[in-house]
Amino acid sequence: MLIEKIKKDLIESLKSGKKAQVSLIRLLLAAIKDKEIALKKNLDSENVISDEEILEIINKMIKQRKFSAQTYLEANRKDYAEKENIEADMLKIYLPEQISDKNLNDVISELILQSESKSLRDMGKVMKLLKENYSGRCDLQKASSIIKEKLSDLNK
Predict the structure, then answer these.
(1) Cα–Cα dist 9/23, whole Å
(2) What local confidence, expressed as pLDDT, does residue 152 receive?
């Protein structure tokens, strides 16, 4: 499970004295714990947070750091922007291999055919299939805009 890998990385980071990595992993573990509490799951039971939920947390944290980095750049604080980008890159090691833009287009076209979607009203069907089959492997915001474009083109 992904949570075990994260905890193992924390221990390795502590032993090697990587303070920035330790801090980031602790933030990640705290976010995971918050999600577990929000879902009212007990750590002592077998029903712990799923890898998909952890991937959502990681993606959210990466997006937050990228947004912060952009904000810092606009404020002429390159040092802080660089720190945020480094943290985002450190978090990416926990994500599965990402689908390329070209492959994402092909995957979405296939899912549209598979779900027999005909219009924008069917967007939910395609997004559901995408989340079920490619969770954590693509940017859902980017995928959403591609799906809208493809479904709009079907109606022309």
Answers:
(1) 12
(2) 87
d(CA 30, CA 90): 16
In DSSP notation, 83-126 reads: HHHHHHHHHHTTSPPPPPHHHHHHHHHHHHHHHT--SGGGHHHH
Residue with tokens 């990640």: 28
Separation CA 36–CA 29 (nearest Å): 10
Contact 49, 32 (CB under 8 A): yes
Helix H or strand E segment including 64: helix 51-74
pLDDT digits (tens, 9 = 90+) for 58-89: 989 999 999 999 999 999 999 999 999 999 99
What is the DSSP secondary structure assignment for residue 45, as one 8-state letter? S
Among 112, 125, 106, residue whose Cα is nearest residue 152: 112
CA atoms within 13 A on the CB side of 40: 0
The Cβ-side half-sphere exposure at 117, using a 13 Å CA radius, reads 27
User: Global pTM?
Assistant: 0.75
Q: Length of the chain, please?
A: 156
